Structure formats: C-alpha cells, structure tokens
Amino acid sequence: EYEGDRDAEGQRHGFGKARLPNGDTYEGEYEHGLRSGHGTYRFKNGALYTGNYLQNKKHGKGVFFYPDGSKYTGDWVHDQRHGYGEYLYANGDTYTGEWADNKRHGQGTYVYKDTGSKYVGCWVNGIQDGPAELVHLNYRFKGRFLNGKPLGRGKFIFDIGCEQHGEYIQPVQVKEIEKEEEEEDEPPLPLEPIWKVSEITKLTPWSPHDDE
C-alpha cells in the first residue's frame, strides 16, 4: 500500500507513506520510486530507523533502534554503520568513535558500564588493536593492544603519582606429550598475556606511539 506523491511516470516521488508486504512501514521522501532523502522506517520486529536514505539504502546521518534495546546514532554509507557514530549497547556499554563496514574501526572510546572503565584508542575490524589507554577508577594502563589483548611495552599510571613500567608477554603454550590412544583434543585456548614489571618511576611522558 502507498499513499503519497508520484512523478510523471507514476513512480513514488516526493513525500509518501508505504506499508511493505512483510509488514514493515516507511514514511518519508522518495525519488523516482526509491527511498531517498529523510524518512522513518519501522520494522515489524520492533526495530526502527530514522534518518537519511539514498536509493533505498541508509546513507548519511541516521539513528537505528535495535529490537534488543541497543541504539546507533551516526553516519551510514550504503546501509552500513560507516564514519563516526555512537552505539549504546543493550547492557549499557557505549562506544563512540569511528566505524567501517558496520564494525568499530579507527579511533574510538568504549565505556564499560559495570566497572566504569574505558578503552580509548585504536580498533581494527571491531577488535581492540593498536596504541591505546585503558582507564580504570584510580589508575590507567597505557600501551599497545593486539587482537583485543595488551601486548608489548606499556605502563600503569597510578593516581598517587607513580608509574609501573613493563611489558605484556605472550606465554608459550606447553604441549603435553600425547598418548596414542587419546582422541583429538580441542585446540587450547590462547593464554592471557602476562605482565612483567621492569621499573617503577615518577610520572613520565612515555607513550605507545614512541615505539612506532
């Protein structure tokens, strides 16, 4: 069903309201039969998008309310979260920063609601990766991350005015000698990096970018 403006060819053009065969509805602007301009799209499952469209794709600025209660406000390109935006997750966590192809990618800040801790730094394809700072209640860690875990040189900075320098080392998985009759085991879980302290100092200007 459609009610609204049409162009000379009878295509939806201008402002209109439509109910789609799947039960979704759209109210907003059209250009020659396609959603283009500003509009609000309501999904049957309770999700809702309000923002800009270009040729039926979410494109430009828009807000998406997901069925689980989470919400994204920011840039879209070709139906993907892409550019700069803020995501409020269903558990109350938030991410504010850069996106590419629907994933956290570039510089961004992720705040954990439960602990109040936050990660400020680089992301690659949705994963914490690159120089960053992990800020806790009365201390913070400054270093580099790889695949979501800290790795390599870094320092803990304590609010009382001192620093603990060191590095995160990836422990080596010790493989036990296998008995022949044993079935194939599941691959072992990657071990957590281990923090190795080198010195404690007063506050210093060292940053993870210095090693690049």
TrEMBL record:
Function: Functions as part of axonemal radial spoke complexes that play an important part in the motility of sperm and cilia.
Region span, Disordered: 1-29
UniProt-listed Gene3D superfamilies: Histone H3 K4-specific methyltransferase SET7/9 N-terminal domain (2.20.110.10)
Protein name, entry field: Radial spoke head 1 homolog
Name of the coding gene: Rsph1
UniProt keyword terms in alphabetical order: Cell projection, Cilium, Cytoplasm, Cytoskeleton, Flagellum, Meiosis, Repeat
Biased composition (Basic and acidic residues): 1-12
Organism for this UniProt entry: Vidua chalybeata (Village indigobird)
InterPro entries from the UniProt entry: MORN
Keyword Cytoplasm: yes
